[in-house]
Amino acid sequence: MSDQVLDPLRRLARLHGVLPVYRDGFKRFRDASQETLLAVLRELGVDIDRPEQAAERLMADRIERWSRLAPPTAVVWGDDPLRLNLHLPAGFEGDVAWELMREDGERQFGERRVEDLLQVGCVRLHGRKLYSFRLELHEMPAGRHRLRIAAGADAAETHVIAAPKHCHLPDQKGLWGVFLPLYALRTERDWGAGDFADLQALSDWTRSLGGSVVGTLPLLAAFLDDPFEYSPYVPASRLFWNELYLDLGEAPPQAAELRQASLVDYRRVAALKRSALESRLTSVDSADLEAYLQAPRAPSLCALPGVTETDGPWTGWADRQREGRIEPGDYDERRFRYHVLAQKMAAEQLAGLAERAGEPGLYLDLPLGVHPAGFDVWRAPESFAAGGRRRAAGSFLHQGAELELFSVASGKDPRRRTRLLVPLPAPSSRACRSPAAGPLHGPASSVLDPARG
User: Fold this and answer.
1) Which residues on neighbouring strands pair with residue 58, listed in sequence order?
2) Measured between alpha carbons, how far is 394 from 409 in angstroms, rounded to an integer?
């Protein structure tokens, strides 16, 4: 038996669902370093600082797992049954009762006699004999559910994640399309980076040649001032669209220099578009903005950038604000209205684009993580691993140690602009013909909803 199989640190990693060996982008197997495994385990809540502590932690974690009636989390794939190992003391003769609270609000109940369950293990713990029994539940609908289990005086709750085995595939065969980063798309009308109108023109051109799919990198909000991070894989939020890509019509004369640059000057393009959009605030119907703010999370989503622009990243805010309570006096009203208008326009433009693109239409890539100073981490800090980094086209969760466990070299510069590859016509202005959609309102036709992943 190899040292890697016997190594307590690698056994501890596997116990927590971390693979100590991975296959890189060149299909070569690589071993994760001890530093990487320690960093990942700590982010998963394991109290470990040195490899020498792994054997002790391994025993403690096994004791803890056997002491629980059921695991805290379970994953089900496709039509497979949910399989849970329940830990019961020797001599238990009662029934095992369960209640499944489904994501759609439905509830299911059931009972199983312990003698009808398959015995799959046995240990002696603190002088007491425990048995492991397999509970199987069939026809688990896709979604996130809660399963409550009771056995005598003992009870537990398991978070169940049921997912399909395969991604959705359209019925048509032989489909083809194009993929191009939107910021790199050059046209005669752009402001220094491609926008939604250019994406529409690319989609129309592709469909005219028989294609049916247009893909691009994430179009999510980015920090383009202070803080500054232009990578599409380090978004300020996965619930916000990036106003850099808004179609604001004819470009001003200042855009000519930006259009000729070999690299995207994100700061200047963003500043130019913001100035143009702010000039429209006085002519915007307040009722339209108020209607948009009825969407879930919309008020705080649009308020957070305004506070950030005034007081810096949320990590340095007052306790009340850091804890999620933002009040109108915390931000400038004009800045708030700007972000409301920007998100409303982005949602409407993408909805119209998706409707015109048809099925399957648009493919928008999705980053795994977010910027640590962004909205998502402020809204739900407990959902993010502080200290992880994933080297896949710049995607990361938080600043900190790079996790070689997941490393994939990319080598792409998210500033590089592509010379005109296709004869895109200058698109005319188009009225949106469908309700606003996007991260705050659900998916727009075939546009991927970042909030759902």
Assistant:
1) none
2) 9
